[in-house]
Specification:
Length: 146
């Protein structure tokens, strides 16, 4: 969740006002997902939150690395204010993790068998008719080779 601006907080860098409406949309979507009552399991209820978190981080990542539309100062400020996940973005920069959905999918401690999540297996190795869904975040496959 992004930090709340107070009178003591530093003003956002130049260019923030151009991307602020999109970030506010993500914040509203996140608030709505958090407040939606769910009768599902805990992991199924958290899936929309993980998805929105991924989308918001990917938006900031694309602005800085792909489109080069924001400055380094603004990018670092966004990371510091928790508008994007710095650890997830660091993984996206490494080969093989370009499509990673969340950090839980690569943590071996989160798995029953001490390996990564099933969504990290390329679809070509699973078969055509196999339906894969992550138990942590609900993604349908985030392997770069898919």
């Amino acid at each position: 969740m992004p930090r709340i601006r107070t009178s003591r907080s530093k003003r956002p860098p130049e260019g923030f006002d151009a991307i602020e409406p999109t970030l506010l949309e993500f914040q509203d979507m996140m608030r709505q997902a958090e407040n939606t009552p769910s009768k599902k399991t805990k992991s199924e209820a958290l899936a929309p939150i993980f998805r929105i978190h991924h989308q918001r981080s990917r938006y900031v990542y694309d602005l800085y690395y792909k489109r080069e539309a924001i400055s380094t100062e603004l990018y670092e400020w966004l990371l510091k204010q928790n508008y994007a996940d710095a650890n997830l973005i660091a993984k996206w920069k490494k080969p093989g993790y370009e499509k990673l959905c969340c950090l839980k999918c690569i943590q071996t401690s989160e798995s029953k068998f001490g390996s990564t999540c099933i969504c990290r297996v390329p679809k070509a190795k699973l078969g055509k008719d196999t339906h894969v869904e992550c138990v942590h975040c609900g993604c349908h496959g985030c392997a770069s080779g898919s």
